[in-house]
Amino acid sequence: MSFFNSFITFTISNLPKGFAKPFAKPYVAGVTMDDALSHVHRLNNNGFDATVDILGEHVSNVDEARNITAQYCQLYQRIAEESLECTISVKPTHIGLNISLSEAVFNMTAILEKAQEFGNFLRIDMENSAFTNQTFEIFEQCKPIYENMGVAIQSYLFRSQEDIERLADSNFNSRICKGIYRESSSVAFQDREDIKNNFLILAKSMAERNAFSGYATHDQDLIDKLLHWIETENISPDLFEFQVLFGVPMEGRLEALLEKGYKVRVYVPYGPDWFDYSVRRLKENPDIAGYVLWNMFKK
Ligand SMILES: Cc1cc2nc3c(=O)[nH]c(=O)nc-3n(C[C@H](O)[C@H](O)[C@H](O)COP(=O)(O)OP(=O)(O)OC[C@H]3O[C@@H](n4cnc5c(N)ncnc54)[C@H](O)[C@@H]3O)c2cc1C
């Protein structure tokens, strides 16, 4: 399977954009802000909350980082004007972390001030482990400015439990996800069951500290395990929500979660950088090619 996924990844990245579009299209909410927000309207009408992300990362030019920052600021304004149930998710390297920590903090502060102006929330996505320390540094520098912000935590990293112990109190808000990048065995669990077990450990650890978690997963077995724990331990719905990526087929599971009264948030990525972004993702983790193909055949 691994060779097959690597082959698909190599093929897609060497095809003209037009051929690759069918692979990316179900998972990208369009190229423009209007495209993305029209999906958010539809999601909200169906009972889902959303978080919007502009596709892109590893920006190495200050003007570009500031331009992306301005677009995030505008997004907060549009979300408020259109009364959407929608937050924003930002990748630190998209707003300058590759340039310097201070550039990323400067831009994150500008975005956070807009979040404050409109009473919204800001989520910092977590990128590969080379950026983990600096991402927490940005979080810790920015949080005193406006506390309605949170950061993602990856259950494949050995360090994540310690990060929770260091940061989590009733004011801490995290998205727990497995982690999407290829990481070495010196820093991360490699076995899928270990990653899943650690996800549950982190979820419990967050709840014990009265800290809010977004459970970001499509793994049905993990969702079953989370629900079993939530229902047997009577975990307050104020302490969690479920989160999924736009376009991943969930076969009625999300509607069932809504019917139980749980909040479900959909991560809605958009932007002109969809091709480069999708190819980078595939190269980093060729297993995604297998998911995409499998989901296309299921449809
Ligand atoms: C809302 C949200 C935010 C995220 N934010 C981050 C982040 O900040 N940092 C980070 O490192 N990772 C992030 N991720 C990705 C996450 O870490 C996992 O890599 C990803 O969700 C796959 O793990 P899984 O728990 O869904 O389980 P898996 O067992 O890997 O997947 C379960 C099933 O979901 C489907 N599936 C999963 N991923 C995809 C995909 N990309 N395309 C199509 N189908 C798919 C497949 O059918 C698969 O069989 C986020 C995920 C979500 C849902």
At a glance:
The chain has helices at residues 2-13, 17-24, 33-45, 62-81, 101-117, 132-142, 160-167, 192-208, 220-232, 253-259, 274-284, 287-298, and strands at 49-54, 86-90, 122-124, 149-154, 173-177, 212-216, 240-245, 264-270.
Topology, pairings included?
Blueprint: H1 2-13, H2 17-24, H3 33-45, E1 49-54, H4 62-81, E2 86-90, H5 101-117, E3 122-124, H6 132-142, E4 149-154, H7 160-167, E5 173-177, H8 192-208, E6 212-216, H9 220-232, E7 240-245, H10 253-259, E8 264-270, H11 274-284, H12 287-298
Parallel strand pairs: 1-2, 1-8, 2-3, 3-4, 4-5, 5-6, 6-7, 7-8
Describe this structure in words.
The protein is α/β, with parallel strands linked by helices and 299 residues long. It has one domain: TIM Barrel (Alpha-Beta Barrel), CATH 3.20.20.220. The protein contains 12 helices and 8 strands. It has an 8-stranded parallel beta barrel with strand order 1-2-3-4-5-6-7-8, surrounded by 7 helices. Helix 1 (2-13) packs across helix 12 (287-298), helix 4 (62-81) runs parallel beside helix 5 (101-117) and helix 5 (101-117) packs across helix 6 (132-142). The radius of gyration is 18 Å and the shape is globular. The chain binds flavin-adenine dinucleotide (FAD). Flavin-adenine dinucleotide binds next to strand 4, strand 5, strand 7 and helix 12.
The SSE string, one letter per element, is: HHHEHEHEHEHEHEHEHEHH
User: Any idea what the shape is?
Assistant: globular
Q: Regions with pLDDT < 50 over 5+ consecutive residues?
A: none
Q: Strand sequence of the main sheet, in spatial order?
A: 1-2-3-4-5-6-7-8
How much helical structure, as a percent, in the residues?
Answer: 40-55%
Level-2 CATH architecture: Alpha-Beta Barrel
Total number of domains: 1
Please compute the radius of gyration using only Cα atoms: 18 Å
Enter the CATH topology name.
TIM Barrel
**Structural class label:** alpha/beta
Bound molecules: flavin-adenine dinucleotide
Mean pLDDT rating: 92
**What fraction of the residues are assigned to beta strands by DSSP?**
5-15%
Q: How many helical elements?
A: 12
**Terminal Cα separation, in Å?**
20 Å
The CATH C-level class name: Alpha Beta
The total strand number stands at: 8
Main beta-sheet strand count, sense and barrel state: 8 strands, parallel, barrel
